[in-house]
Amino acid sequence: MNVDTDTIKNFSKNNKWLLTLFLLLMILRFVIFSVYRVDGSSMMNTFQHNDLVIASNFSKVERFDVIVFKVPEQKKRYIKRVIGVPGDAIKYMDNVLYVNGEKMDEPYLTNQITQDLEVDTISEGYFYCLGDNRKNSVDSRKMGLISEDNLLSEVKMIFFPFNKFSTL
């Protein structure tokens, strides 16, 4: 099938805005934000298996943010909640979170039991992360602290399924 060069020129000329929009969206997609599919149940009830989320590649991570990070030795990406940031001391006692000795509310948890644990001051460049489904999550309790070097993005919204579309 031969394509007439005039046809291509006319398409380009008549659809410059469309091509520009497409190019802009591609740049945004690969530079500004990323799309991830939730795999597994470790972040239930916040996310369900196969939810699609949009994450910002340029965010300052704070306590209780949901992040995506890589675990190079496992060649996997994980989505977890940041419980501790550099300088924090973390303690769970009787299902209550204490950060630097202060009791914290965790409204994203629903009847979750978190085993007692204690983490001394978190070093600069590291995060302590847990899944919201504490009974079924591979997280900092098993993997240890998460290096800032392995941080990929901060989850900002759920966009699929559409009935769950919301920002975090």
Structure description:
The protein has one domain (5-157): Ribbon (Umud Fragment, subunit A), CATH 2.10.109.10. It contains 3 helices and 12 strands, in the order H-H-E-E-E-E-E-E-E-E-E-H-E-E-E. The protein has helices at 5-14, 16-32, 140-143, and strands at residues 33-37, 52-56, 66-71, 76-84, 90-93, 96-99, 102-104, 117-119, 126-130, 146-147, 151-160, 166-167. With 168 residues, the protein is of the alpha+beta class. Strands 1, 2, 3, 4, 9, 10, 11 and 12 form an 8-stranded antiparallel beta sheet that branches. The protein has a 4-stranded antiparallel beta sheet with strand order 7-6-5-8, with no helix packed on it. Helix content is 18%, strand content 35%. The longest helix has 17 residues, at 16-32. It is elongated and about 75 Å long. Strand 5 (90-93) and strand 6 (96-99) form a beta hairpin.
What is the count of helical runs? 3
Percentage of helical residues? Answer: 10-25%
Q: Which whole number gives the mean pLDDT?
A: 88
Mind telling me which CATH architecture this is?
Answer: Ribbon
Q: Largest sheet, if any?
A: 8 strands, antiparallel
Overall number of structural domains: 1
Strand-residue fraction? 25-35%
Low-confidence stretches: none
Measured distance between first and last alpha carbons: 49 Å
Structural class: alpha+beta
Please describe the structure with a list of short key phrases separated by commas or semicolons.
single chain; 168 residues; alpha+beta; Umud Fragment, subunit A; eight-stranded antiparallel sheet; four-stranded antiparallel sheet; 3 helices; 12 strands; 18% helix; 35% strand; elongated
